[in-house]
Amino acid sequence: MTTVATTITQATEDATAVTYAARVEHVSKSFPAPGAPGGRQLVLDDITLDVAPGEFVTLLGASGCGKSTLLNLVAGLDLPSAGSIRTDGRPALMFQEHALFPWLTAGRNIELALRLRGVARPDRRPEAERLLELVRLKGAYGKRVHELSGGMRQRVALARALAQDSRLLLMDEPFAALDAITRDVLHDELTRVWQETGLSVLFVTHNVREAVKLAQRVVLLSSRPGRIAREWTVGIPQPRRIEDGAVAELSAEITEELREEIRRHGRH
């Protein structure tokens, strides 16, 4: 791997001049190899990917292929070993775990993000209540985390991410720990919120049907080192259902490609 200057830049241009929500150009990432002093393990190799304004993109791949690593690089939590990353403003990040503060109410968790954004104190509660209503949790402002179901906690986490007023939402398997029915409901809610807000979304998953149900574009990463193996444009009209024939058909095609990547990795 050739080492080049690495950058992570948050665009400050007028919104009309920005043609991307995220732009990843020839990005590679390596980490120290365990048990090999001075050695490096290549995790991502020459990734080039654009997310357009308002686009919903899912990143799909086998465990360990570097999906979360790439998301962390786009979020600015780590630096690439090579290549450059630019985003239209600071992204908001939502994890698999809700990461809510248990000593705060649902509303106060959202207000904390608003305070960090610089929203004036008198405006925080009305905005927190508006965001809770957006994710269909009207009236939950005063509820503690332990009073909320898993799906409700993830809705609060989504509202808190939206409170950052970012144009780009990064989601790292946020529904993986939920039961199938709750996950399916939250797919519909996320699709609705995305359509209502015009956000760009980069969503990491290892669930093929989840990727197809949500995305306008599915990007498959190869097994380590992660490279873009193939992309699919999903032309199925929203709203989609997991059991829809078109969703099942495209999911089967992508699953076969994913299995081939896993088989290829197993031969090395």
From TrEMBL:
It comes from Streptomyces calvus. CDD domains: ABC_NrtD_SsuB_transporters. Residues 22-250 form the ABC transporter domain. InterPro entries: AAA+_ATPase, ABC_transporter-like_ATP-bd, ABC_transporter-like_CS, ABC_transporter_ATP-bind, P-loop_NTPase. SMART domains: AAA. This is Sulfate ABC transporter ATP-binding protein. It holds the Pfam family ABC_tran. Keywords: ATP-binding, Nucleotide-binding, Transport.
